[in-house]
Design brief:
This protein is an alpha+beta fold. It has 3 domains: about 100 residues, 3-Layer(aba) Sandwich (Glutaredoxin); about 120 residues, Glutathione S-transferase Yfyf (Class Pi), Chain A, domain 2 (Up-down Bundle), CATH 1.20.1050; about 60 residues, no CATH class. It contains 12 helices and 9 strands. The strands form 3 sheets. Strands 2-1-3-4 form a 4-stranded mixed sheet. A 3-stranded antiparallel sheet has the order 7-8-9. Strands 5-6 form a two-stranded antiparallel ribbon. β1, α2 and β2 form a beta-alpha-beta unit. α2 packs parallel to α4, α2 crosses α8 and α5 runs antiparallel to α7. The chain is globular. The protein starts with 6 loop residues before the first helix and ends with a helix. About 35% of the residues are buried.
């Protein structure tokens, strides 16, 4: 005779069913983002921030921007040929960062990628369009790099003119929004996404801007999401280093120099703080050994341990007990 299931078992079965439905729905709604090397690809950073900062589901795919396989890696997305490129859940391919921003904003109005106020929204679009089309001297003379700060860099007059124009635009944005600090339009928007790599150039090359704009740049780069992007980029070693300047360099000013280092196990924890899978690779931080499911999870944590909320929470939980 068949056993009847209890109310608790019915509730558990329902919970599993709805979790499976939600997972299938998220997979159907997941975007595929194709990016280049994180330390150097400013446009890839913009594409990633649009998805990550606004909590949109995605899978990232690395192309061989510096390894020579980029053309081959991008073939399935033709005629798109540059990163970032976005494949929508229905397999539509969108190239160019500004087109991606408009597409995502259209598909996810509740995410508020653009400012809600019409005047602020129009101004934000203007700033992003000028970023796409302009500042050629700054972009050519100061390629983005997130490793260190070049010391003694002397910008050309053309780059100084670009910086002056950027400061004019930022001042105009703040005049529209009425905000003296933080995101340009009060709430974080695509405008802040588009100018985060500019902030990286200003800080990474020690470029002259006002004290208020220096603070804005550091604010953008101190965002935990941006720190995570940089930390993942630091898992890759480059020899020779792209875009050498022949100058001395100082430490990146956000996050400090990590004291974490790879070590053999065993670890305090049995499960990776990110995936929940069994640990296989290990790091030491302040005399404690922590485990991760693969070298990438370990190495991104070695690069910047305080950029990762799940690792911070694991450390706190263990050390409190």
């Amino acid at each position: 005779m068949a056993r009847s299931i209890t109310f608790r078992e019915q509730a558990a079965h329902k919970s599993l069913f709805y979790r499976a439905v939600n997972l299938r729905h998220r997979l159907r709604m997941t975007y595929d983002l194709f990016i280049g090397d994180r330390l150097f690809s400013s446009w890839s950073m913009r594409g990633w921030l649009m998805l990550e900062k606004f909590n949109l589901p995605y899978r990232s795919h690395m192309t061989g921007l510096y390894s020579g396989t980029m053309a081959q890696d991008m073939e399935p997305l033709a005629p798109a040929r540059l990163v970032p490129a976005l494949r929508l859940p229905d397999d539509t391919v969108v190239g160019e960062s500004l087109a991606m921003a408009e597409t995502l904003a259209e598909r996810h109005p509740d995410a508020r990628l653009w400012p809600s106020d019409p005047t602020a929204r129009a101004t934000a679009r203007w700033l992003c369009a000028e970023m796409v089309a302009g500042f050629g001297a700054l972009r050519g003379e100061c390629p983005m790099q997130l490793l260190h700060v070049w010391q003694g860099f002397k910008p050309s007059d053309e780059t100084l003119a670009d910086l002056a124009r950027i400061e004019t635009l930022w001042a105009h944005a703040r005049g529209i929004s009425g905000t003296a600090q933080g995101p340009l339009f009060g709430a974080y928007s695509v405008a802040d996404v588009f100018y985060t790599p500019v902030a990286a150039r200003i800080i990474g090359y020690g470029l002259p801007v006002s004290e208020a704009n220096q603070a804005y740049c550091l604010d953008l780069l101190s965002d935990p999401i941006v720190r995570q992007w940089r930390a993942m980029g630091l898992t890759v070693q480059y020899e020779p280093f792209p875009y050498p300047q022949g100058l001395p360099s100082g430490s990146w000013p956000i996050g400090g120099v990590s004291s974490a280092k790879p070590v053999p196990g065993p670890s305090i924890n049995d499960a990776c703080p990110y995936s929940g899978n069994p640990v296989a690779d290990f790091l030491d931080l302040d005399g404690q050994c922590w485990g991760f499911c693969n070298p990438f999870c370990r190495d991104k944590t070695v690069a910047d341990p305080n950029a990762w909320p799940k690792f911070i929470a694991l450390r706190a939980a263990v050390n409190e007990t």
